[in-house]
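Objective 1b: paired records.
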Amino acid sequence: MTPHNHASKDAYAETVLLPGDPLRAKWVAETFLDDAKLVNSVRNCLGYTGTYKGKKVSVQATGMGQPSLAIYVHELINLYGAKNFIRIGTCGGLNEKVKVRDVVLGVAASTDSAMNTGTFGRYHYAPHADFDLLRKAADLADERKMKFHAGGIVSSDVFYVEGGAKGYQPLLDHDILAVEMEAAALYTLAAKFNRKAIAICTMTDCLITGDEIDADARQSSLEEMATLSLDLAATL
C-alpha cells in the first residue's frame, strides 16, 4: 500500500488502462470488464481489475496532469508489477487533418513540462510509445476501419494556453497532431523501467477550427477508443 493506493500487492493485472478521469475508469470497468472489482479508491482515483475476453486487465484513474500520472504509474510499476500501460483519454486537435471523433495514436510526446530537466540536463529527451504496442494498435484500428492518426502529440502542463492554438504555433509548424496532459510522463517512466506504453486518445475538440462534439457523441467516440484499447490489452 502507498499513500495513493491501498490495493493489495497482487490486485493489478500486468496490463493497465489509464484514463485521467476516475468516472471513466468506473465506466470502462462496469461496461466492458467481466467480474470487475474495485481495488483502489484512495482520493477517488478509482482502480479496477477484471477480465476482458478472458484476459486479466486493470483500469486505474491517474487524475489530470503529468505529476499525478507519474505517481500512479511509478507505483504500479515498482509496487504492483504492471508491465503494459495504455493511456485512454481525450485530446485537443492541433492539426486540421485530425477531425473530431478521430483516434490519435501518440508516437512521441513533446512537452512543456520541466519534470525531466533534472534527469537529462542539456539533452532534450524524446519520450515515445512502445513500437510493438503502436503497431498492434494501428493494425487493430485498420481492421475496424477506424479513422485514426499516428504521430507526434504534446503533453502540456497548461490547459488554458495564452493565445489558444497560436500558443502552440511552433508545434503546429512541425506537424504535431494534438495536445493532452499525460503521455510524455508515461512514456518517460516506461522507458526508465523497461515497460511498454502507448497513449490512445480521442480528439474531442479542435483548437484550430473550434469544432467539438456534444456529450452523446463524446460517449460513443470514447466507447470506440475503449474497445480498441481493450482489444489491444487482450493481445498482451
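Objective 1b, second protein:
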Amino acid sequence: MAICSECDSVLDFDVEEVDEGDVIVCDECGAEYEVVGTDPLELSKVDNEGYESDDAVVVDEEEE
C-alpha cells in the first residue's frame, strides 16, 4: 500500500498494472508520483515543474 506524503491518503492503483515511468495521482490532493521501480514498488513525488523531488512514498509490501 502506498501512502501520499502530502495528505496521508492511500494511493488507489493496481500494483500489478503499473510500469516504470507511469504517473500516479492522489485522488484526495492531486499530488503526482512517478513509478521509479516495480520490484519492489518505488514511487517518487513529482514537483510542480514536473521534476522528481526528494519526497518518497511509504510502500508497505505486506498490505498490497
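Residues 19 and 60 are 18 Å apart (CA to CA). The chain has a mean pLDDT of 82.
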